[in-house]
Amino acid sequence: MKLNVALVIIVATIFGIELEGFHCKKVQFIFGDSLSDVGNNKYLPRSLAQASLPWYGIDMGNGLPNGRFSNGRTVSDIIGDKIGLPRPPAFLDPSLSADVILENGVNYASGGGGILNETGTYFIQRLSLYRQIELFQGTQELIRTNIGKEKADTFFKEANYVVALGSNDFINNYLMPLYSDSWTYNDETFIEYLTGTLEKQLKVLHSLGAREVTVFGLGPMGCIPLQRVLTTSGNCQEKTNNLALSFNNATSKLIDDLMKQLPNSSYKFGDAYDVVYDVISYPSKYGFENADSPCCSFGRIRPSLTCLPASTLCKDRSKYVFWDEYHPSDSANELIANELIKKFGLGAPSQAPTLAPTLAPSQAPAIAPSPDN
Questions:
Q1: Which of 94, 222, 318, 352 could form an SS bridge with 237, CB 3.0 to 4.6 Å?
Q2: Domain range enclosing 35
Q3: What is the arrangement of strands in the sheet containing 212-216, beginning at the earlier edge strand?
Q4: Which of 77, 318, 327, 330 is catalytic?
């Protein structure tokens, strides 16, 4: 009997469960695109949105690709670290289990995914937000089977939820003539369609127990290197930036409305547009040297839409706002996260990890074969 009691205490300690009332460990469930993906797409063998080659992940852990579309951490990684929550693993990670979920939560984010199902179809495989929510429902069934409905309901209601999508719905949908949305809608009606869809999705998440939800806004999309290089001037595309601002305004209003409509819920809107635009406009003020081109590039061949082993890396990754044509560097993600931490009143910002030394392309680390190969 004493042995059984000791075993229960050990298990409770491991999983952060208080024996009285069964209060599970607080975790995160993250829904997003490539800015939050921590490895789901590397398990989608036909996906063209991949971060499975060197130099991705060079400044994390062993420096090997880990599924993040950056040289280091995501914004969600940094915010979660700051508020003391574990980093949730990718849903498609084969090692995921009920025990892992109870301890760490889950990340469903997928590179190329959007709020709309039709977004990013030319990536072939990606998880849209509706699909991510379906996978979350499957997660709930698994947890209910393991700990029972009542305890599972408490676990999910006490968790944090992050929803961070939208940029692909513009860059890889509305702004591309090959998509019907580009000629079906104008700017105003497309944003109404997009935020109307997001509203339905957030209400579905509420019905599934999501009570503490943070929705991220969009940054100045027209200033990413991919958008700049497609112009003759090399400047930011103001039309794209204005779409981001309009989306942020509409989503902020949506969050305010949901706070009034949905009982016992806490919704936050994470908007870092202004600070990111200021960083891009005045990089030296923030310690950056380059805010208009990617650290990882294929020489004069641009846009090279992904970072490749044959690409050239900048001399100091901490001085570049952008890692590749689409995505911020670890240093920029830290700045964005710290701005959101300050807005949310969560305390002092976290520190970036020491960067690994810059290697020559010939020194690229070997990577093990993945299921995608």
A1: 222
A2: 28-273
A3: 105-107, 28-32, 160-164, 212-216, 266-270
A4: 327
